[in-house]
Structures are given as C-alpha cells and as structure tokens.
Design a protein that fits this description.
The protein has helices at about 20-30, 50-65, 80-90, 115-125, 140, 145-150, 170-180, 205-215, 215-230, 270-275, and strands at about 1-5, 35-40, 40-45, 70-75, 75-80, 100-105, 130, 155-160, 185-190. The protein is α/β, with parallel strands linked by helices and about 280 residues long. It binds fe (ii) ion. Fe (ii) ion (FE2) binds near residues 5, 76 and 191.
Length: about 280
Amino acid sequence: MIDIHYHLIYGVDDGAGSLEESLALAEESIAEGVTHIVCTPHASDSFAYRAKVNQERMEEIQERLGDRVKLVMACDFHLNAENIHDALKNPLKYSIDGKGYLMVEFPEMAIPPQLGEALQRLHGVGYTCVITHPERNPVIVRNPKMMADWMRAGSLVQVTASALYGRFGQQAEAFSNQLLDRNWIHFLATDAHHMEWRPPHMKKAYEYVAKRAGEETARRLCVENPMAAVTGTKLPTQPEPVGVWDDAPLKFQETLQSAPKRGGESTKKSWLGKLFGR
Ligand SMILES: [Fe+2]
C-alpha cells in the first residue's frame, strides 16, 4: 500500500513532534505493509511550508529507516490566497515529488466560488488537484454538488481511511461510504499525525473496502492510484462516478447505509476516465 497523506516529518506542523515519533509512525506503517509514504507537511495560515527543513528531515528519517519504505515529499496545501499565488508562480513546487499531483484542503468555514476557479488555474499550470478529506469538511458535506463540479473539471478525491469505519463520527462515516459506493473516491490515505489520536492505519480500511466494494476497488484506492500519484503518471481507467453528471443537487444520507449490491464493477473505458488522468 501507498499512503499519500501523512504528517511524518517532525517539528514542522501538528504531526510528529520528534525524530523518535516519526520513526515510530513509519515503523507502524511498514508493519501494515506500506511501501511508500508521501510526506505532506502543512502549508497553511498556522504552519509555514519550510521546504529546506522538510527535505533535510525527510532524508534523515529515510536514512534511519533504510530501504524498507520509500519516503516522498509533497504538501498538505491549504487553499488560501498566498499559497495559491505561490503555487502558480512556482509550478509543481508543492506537488507529490514535484510531479504534478497536489493535495488540496478547502477551508471549513466557507468556500467562495473563486476557489473553484483557483483549482482551474492550478490545473492550468500542470497540477492535478486532489481534494483531501471532503468527508470532514462541513461545507462540502452540506453541498456535495461542489465536489461534482470540481470532479467534472478534473479534480480527484482522497478520503481519510479511518473515516470509512467511523473514526471521524457518524456523518463522516456515512458521507465517505456514500462516496465509496458512488465511485467518487480515488485515494485512501491516513492523514497520520500521531500514534494515538491520528494513527497511520491503512490495513483496516483496505480490508473494509475489500469487503464492501471488492478487492479490486481496495487495490485501486490503496495501491494503484496512489502509485500513479507518486510516479506522476495518469491514473488507470476508473469506474464511472455515479451522479457526478446529474443536474439535480445530490442529497447524501446522514447515516450509514448498507452497501449496494455488486454486479461487478464497471471497467469499461470511458471518456470521463480520461479526465482523471493528468
Ligand atoms: Fe493533513
């Protein structure tokens, strides 16, 4: 598995607080079968993005871990004016290994239409935007039509692994499961911060998805799509996201529904699938 959202680098944000904590988190991931960790220090109003320090500490951690897991640099990129300006001025700077995939976080209080336009501008300079944990953003949960708009314009979606089995509350659980059932998720990742309160657990989510949506989907969300993000290549063909093209605003249920009956996931190549590539 490949974990593309992870606050592994110590002392630069609210993630790991020391080298020892970074190593303990990474060891837990290795034990779960994670082969690549994408380090995503925050670039936000609270935490400045310190590229040089991030790189030095990632190399230090990598040296201690050896080749048992591969660390890759990226950013937990908050969509504020300053960040957007800098990302447009320095194309691909904040993306995963500088290869294009950008992990974007929307504000939780209000999402002005200009941010949708910002996504377009970021796409225009070569980024592929990945919307991080929409299930934890109350504005998006109230108005998932926004997500459909961004997805139609080529954005991808990353959901927090543990949200699927209720670690972020009932609403996030219901919302993320409905995203899963509708094929609106491209990546699962832990957003790991800390061994107790935000642990790096991918395996349980992988097994959960395999049971609810099939092994093929679990591999797509935890292995194949994340690998494409790490290597900066086009995603493999994705199943059709149900409802993304509907005109009527989508209504999500507030509580967890049982999984829909599966008649085999659609693997036919669609023109929509092309939107999900770079
Ligand atoms: Fe994060």
